[in-house]
Amino acid sequence: xxxxxxxxxxxxxGAGKTTxxxxxxxxxxxxRIGVILNEFGQTGIDEVAGAARRAMIELSEGCVCCIRSxxxxxxLADMRARGDVDLVIVETTGLADPLALTWMLTRPDLxxxxxxxxxxxxxxxxxxxxxxxxxxxxxxxxxxxxxxxxKLDVAPESARERVEAAMTDAGGGARVVxxxxxxxxxxxxxxxxxxxxxxxxxxxxxAASAPHARHSGYVAVSLSWDGKVAFxxxxxxxxxxxxxxxxxxxxxxxxxxxxxxxxxxxxGGRLDFDPDVAAPAHGESRVVLLGPSxxxxxLAAAFDAVAATx
Length: 310
What we know:
The chain is of the alpha/beta class. It has 11 helices and 15 strands. A 7-stranded parallel beta sheet has the order 3-2-4-1-5-6-7, sandwiched between helices. It has a 6-stranded antiparallel beta sheet with strand order 8-9-14-11-12-13, with helices on both faces. The chain starts with a strand and ends with a strand.
């Protein structure tokens, strides 16, 4: 059983984390999502509870952002053992520094239980001026792989430019997603379908069915090569480490020149590259890249350039 992908959802008090979480849970993506809330005794679960298929655990007596958090570790182990959870979202408190939590989720002893997929930070574009000076706000921005701007629909027209400048000043270098309209959840979550899974992951499957598909202003570029094509491992890893800034998320499984298969997940500036994964049943090398204004040609050429054999 593979480790559970874990998305850390963070943001300052009142930024809109729970609103985003509800949107994710209610979306028709077909993913079985486990939720771990850390709200210090607040009725967090009552705000997001819905369909019975969801697994929810509320940690109200301790902080999941502590370096040693046995309750969180136990909760993740329990969700993985259930066998009916595809991924986990951990929603932190509004005063959390996610750095210690992300460090914990990448510990070697948890490698078989959980895999950190991404840190999503919700930023309030309407009230950010009042919170930008807080150390926690700055830490949440710095730790993000993707920044979700909330409340732009009720903020002044100049708000986006000013909040992006504030995030840059805080050291934030993550990609920015506008929360208005239909949110492209495939950018936020690990939603690429498992060919062996019984359920259909509708959002990403629809995007991946065409070589160049559009969704909510974002583009999904799907690339594939038959089993005769192999890639140089080092060159491939260098390439996915240097994906263009327009690529918000990338996933792939490709055959290497050594005969092994490599898998990678790239979200913002975070990369998980495994040079030895199980070969896919379909026998093809496949890559899916998502982001705004992507052009298939240059991306395909970049991957073709590191192909070792044909």
